[in-house]
C-alpha cells in the first residue's frame, strides 16, 4: 500500500498515493552548488493520460546520497528518495496523473560535497481532455535517408498550441503556437530532418489551450515515417525545429467530430 503524501496545490492540501520509499521532508532552502546538475525525465512519457501512472527519474553522480524533487509554484514539502543501485539515480512514482500533479518539476541531489545545481525543468502534462487532433507528413511519410519532412498537426477544436512528441526520446517535446487555416482549423507545422534510416521516427501530437497549457487532448493517431535508402556518411540525427515556419500548406481533412470531452469526471 502506498504511503499518504501531502501535496499542496493552489493553497489547498490534497492527498495523493505514492509508492513505498518516498518520504516528505520539511521544506528548506537548497543552496545551488557547484556539482554537475542532474538529468530529469519521465517514464513512460511527460505526456500522461489522466489517472495513469508516471515516474519521474533523477540521475546525478555515483556519490549521490539523496535526491529531491520540487514542483514549481507549489508550497508543498520536498519529496526525497535514497538512490537506487548503483547509486546515481532515484525515481519518484506518481500513481495517478491528474491536473493537480501536472506542472514543472526540477530535481537535485546531495553528495558529500553538498547539493548539486537544479536540473533542467521537466514539464508533466496530463492528456485526455479533448478529442484527438490529426497528424500527417508533408509531402508524404515515405522518404530516402537524409531527407526532410514537415509534420502537420491540426484540429477543428481551435487549440492555441500543439505539442509533438517522438517515441523513444527523453528530451522535451516540441511546442508550437497554432495558426488558423482558411478552412477554420487550427494547425501547426513541425519541420523534421534530416531523417536517417538508423533511427526510428514515430510521432504523436496533442492540442492544448493557452489558458491551461498542462491539460491537453487525447493523442493523435501515431505517425511513423518510413525511411529508405543508405544513410550518407557522417549524417547526424536532428530533431524537429520549432524556430522556423514553413509556407502555408493545403488543409488535411480532420478526423470525424466526436464528443469533446474524453474523460469522466469521477
Q: How large is the count of helical segments?
A: 0
Please write the string of helix (H) and strand (E) elements.
EEEEEEEEEEEEEEEEEEEEEEE
Distance N to C terminus: 22 Å
Please give the number of β-strands.
Answer: 23
Give the C-alpha Rg: 20 Å
> What helical percentage do the residues reach?
under 10%
* Classification by helices and strands: mainly beta
List low-confidence stretches: 1-21, 231-239, 241-266
Overall residue-averaged pLDDT value: 79
Strand content: 35-45%
Q: How would you sum up this structure, described in words?
A:
Strands 3, 5, 7, 8, 10, 11 and 12 form a 7-stranded mixed beta sheet that branches. Strands 16, 17, 20, 21 and 22 form a 5-stranded antiparallel beta sheet that branches. This protein has strands spanning 3-9, 12-18, 23-25, 39-43, 47-49, 54-59, 66-71, 78-81, 89-94, 103-111, 114-115, 122-127, 134-138, 142-144, 149-155, 161-166, 174-177, 179-180, 186-192, 202-209, 212-216, 223-224, 226-228. With 266 residues, the chain is mainly β. The relative contact order is 0.17. Strand 18 and strand 19 form a beta hairpin. Residues 1-21, 231-239 and 241-266 have low confidence and may be disordered. The radius of gyration is 20 Å and the shape is globular. It contains no helices and 23 strands.
Amino acid at each position: 500500500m502506498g504511503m499518504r503524501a501531502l501535496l499542496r496545490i493552489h493553497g489547498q492540501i490534497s492527498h495523493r498515493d505514492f509508492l513505498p520509499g518516498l518520504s516528505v521532508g520539511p521544506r528548506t532552502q537548497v543552496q545551488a552548488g557547484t556539482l554537475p546538475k542532474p538529468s530529469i525525465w519521465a517514464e513512460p512519457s511527460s505526456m500522461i493520460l489522466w489517472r495513469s501512472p508516471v515516474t519521474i527519474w533523477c540521475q546525478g553522480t555515483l556519490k549521490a546520497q539523496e535526491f529531491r524533487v520540487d514542483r514549481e509554484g507549489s508550497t508543498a514539502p520536498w519529496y526525497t528518495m535514497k538512490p537506487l543501485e548503483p547509486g546515481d539515480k532515484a525515481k519518484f512514482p506518481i500513481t495517478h496523473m491528474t491536473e493537480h500533479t501536472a506542472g514543472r518539476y526540477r530535481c537535485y541531489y546531495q553528495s558529500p560535497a553538498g547539493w548539486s545545481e537544479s536540473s533542467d525543468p521537466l514539464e508533466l502534462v496530463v492528456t485526455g481532455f479533448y478529442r484527438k487532433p490529426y497528424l500527417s507528413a508533408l509531402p508524404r511519410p515515405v522518404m530516402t535517408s537524409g531527407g526532410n519532412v514537415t509534420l502537420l498537426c491540426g484540429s477543428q477544436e481551435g487549440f492555441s498550441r500543439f505539442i509533438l512528441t517522438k517515441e523513444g526520446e527523453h528530451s522535451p517535446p516540441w511546442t508550437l503556437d497554432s495558426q488558423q487555416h482558411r478552412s477554420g482549423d487550427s494547425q501547426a507545422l513541425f519541420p523534421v530532418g534530416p531523417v536517417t534510416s538508423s533511427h526510428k521516427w514515430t510521432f504523436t501530437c496533442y492540442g492544448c489551450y493557452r489558458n491551461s497549457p498542462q491539460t491537453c487532448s487525447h493523442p493523435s493517431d501515431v505517425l511513423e515515417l518510413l525511411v529508405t535508402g543508405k544513410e550518407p556518411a557522417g549524417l547526424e540525427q536532428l530533431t524537429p525545429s520549432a524556430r522556423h515556419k514553413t509556407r502555408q500548406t493545403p488543409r488535411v481533412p480532420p478526423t470525424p467530430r466526436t464528443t469533446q470531452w474524453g474523460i469522466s469526471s469521477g
